[in-house]
Amino acid sequence: MKEGKQVDTINFIFCTDQYLLGLNKKHLNHDTLTDIITFEYNPPGQALLSDIYISIERVRDNAVVFKTSFSHELHRVIFHGVLHLCGYKDKKPEESKLMRFKEEEYLQKWFVPRGTA
């Protein structure tokens, strides 16, 4: 990604809804299902060191809701987590709009479905 960040290590941990819900309750005090939680461990200004937890169940359900493939939705969520590490937020409407724009930008640039050149 061209967002001005250096990467040390980003671990992607694929898990269940229940596992991610437990992390959400414990670390963020949110009692809701989510598709992704990103933990950043590096000191400010240092190369990214992170764990990104992704609920495969949420990704699968969201793919149905948004009428897209599981693979496309998974890639979107992966970019979403990395964009958070790059400083993008999504709590306010204008932040969410920019986040969606950046997700689509990276999906179009990097996601190539199987069987295409």
TrEMBL record:
Name the domain of life this protein comes from: Bacteria
One GO BP: rRNA processing
**What InterPro entries does UniProt report for this protein, alphabetically?**
MetalPrtase_cat_dom_sf_prd, YbeY
Q: Where are the transmembrane segments?
A: none
* Listed EC numbers: 3.1.-.-
Q: What class of enzyme is it?
A: hydrolase
For whether the record's keyword set contains Metal-binding, the answer is yes
Can you name one GO molecular function term for this protein?
Answer: RNA endonuclease activity
Instruction: Give the subcellular location.
Output: Cytoplasm
| Annotated Gene Ontology cellular component terms | cytoplasm
Q: How is the cofactor bound?
A: Binds 1 zinc ion.
Query: What does the record give as cofactor?
Result: Zn(2+)
Which keywords appear in this protein's UniProt record, sorted alphabetically? Cytoplasm, Endonuclease, Hydrolase, Metal-binding, Nuclease, Ribosome biogenesis, rRNA processing, Zinc
Query: Which residues are listed for Zn(2+) binding in this entry?
Result: 80, 84, 90
Q: What does this protein do?
A: Single strand-specific metallo-endoribonuclease involved in late-stage 70S ribosome quality control and in maturation of the 3' terminus of the 16S rRNA.
Family in the record:
Belongs to the endoribonuclease YbeY family.
UniProt-listed NCBIfam families: rRNA maturation RNase YbeY (TIGR00043)
Please state what the protein is called: Endoribonuclease YbeY
The species this protein belongs to is Flavisolibacter ginsengisoli DSM 18119
